[in-house]
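For consistency, the fold was encoded as tokens, as this record shows:
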Amino acid sequence: SAHADFRSALDSTRRYRLEVLPAGVLPARWEAELGRLRTSFIRFAAEQAIRTRNKALALEALVAAEEGRLAALRTFTSRPSTARLADYQAKVQYLETLESSLLAQESSAETRTQAARLRQEILDLESRLALEGEAWLPPYDPVALACRKLADAPPSSTTFSIFLDSPNSYLWELRKDEIRLVRLADRAAIEQAARAFREGIESNDARAMEFGLTLYNQLFGEISPAARTSHVWTLILDGNLFEVPWAALPVSPRRLFLAEQHALRTAPSFFVSADRCSVSGRFVGVGDPIYNRADRRQPPCGQPKLELARLVGSGVEVESCRRAWKAEGVVLRGAEATAARLVREMQQPVAALHFATHFVRSPQDASRTLVALSLAPEADGPELLGPERILAMGLRTDVVVLSGCQS
């Protein structure tokens, strides 16, 4: 009876979303209420599925979790209409200039205040104008869609969808025509393990391996033998698991790492974790930018406040990837590694976009990562490509590779 009530409520909200709400706007308060409904259903359905080994109920719990992820995508990734955003573009470029000063540690309290105010103005613009983005609306019949995606999954891959909650979290193991549901530890315990491992890696703590093994066993200790031998792992994450350096996660005390066992991917949702992408389109690589005046490729310039070490191997990396792509491609190196040149190259369809650059964290907001491109002749430092500018560019590609520290 409870299951029928939950199902009726979820079906009603799906119809309401598609038939009543404007496609461009999702009220945050309404979405929060719906999130509580989904969470209640996930707890109920997951526990029932584990107790009865009911795969259909496990699938319904997965669908509720993935609908929540889609709703978050729609709420937070609307694309501003670049044609109407001249003021937006100017503010974003000025913000990147201020970020460069902050990174060079030559800024005043006034600069920090100005950057914070400017970021708020940009957010206000996005709130007013970012209503024309893709409608990441959950499908009308999400269970049927999930079944089709399971049927179409490559045999050599496994997808793990993680839902953090209290008192129990859950892991769905998804392979071709197969679904397994595993009960995990409390959200707080998993997030604490994730935090300890990340901080241990960043500080070169001798206990980092121990912390990593704890996290691996918490998440993947009960997965099937078939999943352990899958060539590709796709991770659908939750909470602070987005911050985990997954490639460095140890899978055994013998210093065997996750990246040595599986090709790793992350996806925002099971509904958009496409396993097929174009392999015939163009390749665009960005690598080995000019980061300092000691670089012989650097044309005469002023006195930049921020300079970074050259990444010599990154040029070889992007050139090797371009050759391996075996299709038309271009590599932006040295003085060509600029945002303007990138936008020009992206005017044509691109299948793969590969950055091998420095990535730096904003000194005011550690959650903001900026792509460091080449020094401009009259700039205070490397050109910094922030999330707002990337959003406004409206770049379209099948595969994006971010190869660099802090990426």
Notes: Residues 9 and 37 are 8 Å apart (CA to CA). Residues 21-25, 130-138 have pLDDT under 50 and may be disordered. The longest strand covers residues 282-289.
